[in-house]
Amino acid sequence: MKAVAVLPGKPNSVHLREIPQPKLNDQPHAHVCSIPEGRAVLVKTLQIGVDATDREINEALYGNAPPGGEHLVIGHESFGEVLEVGAKVTELKPGDLVSCTVRRPGGSIYDKIGRNDITSEETYYERGINLCHGYMTEMFVDDAEYMVKVPPQLRHLGVLSEPASVCAKAIDQAYLAQHRLQVWSPKRAFVLGAGQIGLLATMMLKLRGLDVYTLATKPGPHRKSEIATAYGATYVSTKQESMHDLAKRVGKP
After folding, report:
1. Rounded to whole angstroms, how far apart are CA atoms 8 and 59?
2. Are residues 72 and 5 in contact, defined by beta-carbon separation less than 8 angstroms?
3. C-alpha distances in Å from residue 94, one per residue of 62, 97, 110, 228
4. In a domain, 40, yes or no
5. pLDDT by residue (tens digit) across 163-221?
6. Are 31 and 43 a contacting pair, CB within 8 Å?
7. Rounded CA Rg of the chain
8. Are 133 and 4 in contact (CB under 8 A)?
9. 208 and 93 within one domain
10. What's the whole-model pTM score?
């Protein structure tokens, strides 16, 4: 089957290549963690998101191939349809829509309690980013543990599950960190950037009831400024008003 891969360390090496078609009993990242018997899920890829991480991997800024290989299949923002499940998988069935998490557990205490997203180890294992092949293939296999079921009503948004989770976690962590002050009660937020992450963060902060300003360089109107405005936020071009001047005008976030 076809896959999109890079040769880590070699700039602009992205290419299409043939790789073996996966089977339900495969172990795609056994060098990190094995899929328990009967817990594998075979997925047909429907969509893969491409972002700045993929561009930077292709620029050879970071990313490593799995041990013993020279290529890394990229793609970490996944969305697909379940084709087959193992005998011990009860939460998913063929036909279900899923998105998969990216990081796999290492050896830190956080990895061992299921919080591999905040591993304290310097070496990390992420599908499509570092030391584990990604999802930009026609099909892939993984542990049901790392799959998130997407409701059919959200099919058109399923590929945004991974970047949306990044925003949700960042905002949650900010609130948790500031909650220790007890008197912290935010009224406004500045979002720096109007890319995929910036616009998703804009939406989530508006849902929390904040007065949101989305800052980016390009003056509007354009598609990104229109999306931010549709969320109820205020789009600000830093070419027209600096963040310092904005804070003077509306107050600090």
Report:
1. 9
2. yes
3. 36, 9, 32, 37
4. yes
5. 999 999 999 999 999 988 888 899 999 999 999 999 999 999 999 999 999 999 999 99
6. no
7. 20
8. no
9. no
10. 0.91
CATH of the domain at 199: 3.40.50.720
- As to burial, measured by CB atoms within 10 angstroms (0-12 exposed, 13-18 middle, 19+ buried), residue 244 is exposed
- Tell whether 155 and 190 lie within a shared domain: no
Domain at 36, CATH number: 3.90.180.10
**Tokens representing 96?**
């279900």
The answer to whether residues 22 and 42 touch, using CB atoms and an 8 Å cutoff, is yes
Q: State whether 25 and 91 are in the same domain.
A: yes
Q: How far apart are CA 89 and CA 96, in angstroms?
A: 13
Does 211 lie in the same domain as 132? no
Range of the domain at 147: 2-159
Query: How many other CB atoms sit within 10 Å of the CB of residue 41?
Result: 28
How many domains, in total, are found in the chain? 2
In a domain, 238, yes or no: yes
Other Cβ atoms closer than 10 A to 166: 16
pLDDT at 55: 97
- For 55-82, how does the pLDDT look when each residue is reduced to its tens digit (9 = 90+)? 999 999 999 999 999 999 999 999 999 9
Hey, what amino acid is at 124? Y
Handedness of CA 203, 205, 207, 210 (dihedral sign): negative
- pLDDT attached to residue 181: 85
- Assigned domain for 86 exists: yes
Measured distance CA(130)–CA(19) in Å, rounded: 18
Q: Are residues 17 and 75 in the same domain?
A: yes
Query: Which pLDDT score, from 0 to 100, does residue 182 have?
Result: 86
Do 226 and 134 lie in one domain? The reply is: no
The residues that bridge with 78 in the sheet, in sequence order, are 48
Domain presence at residue 79:
yes
Q: In the prediction, which pLDDT does 215 show?
A: 98
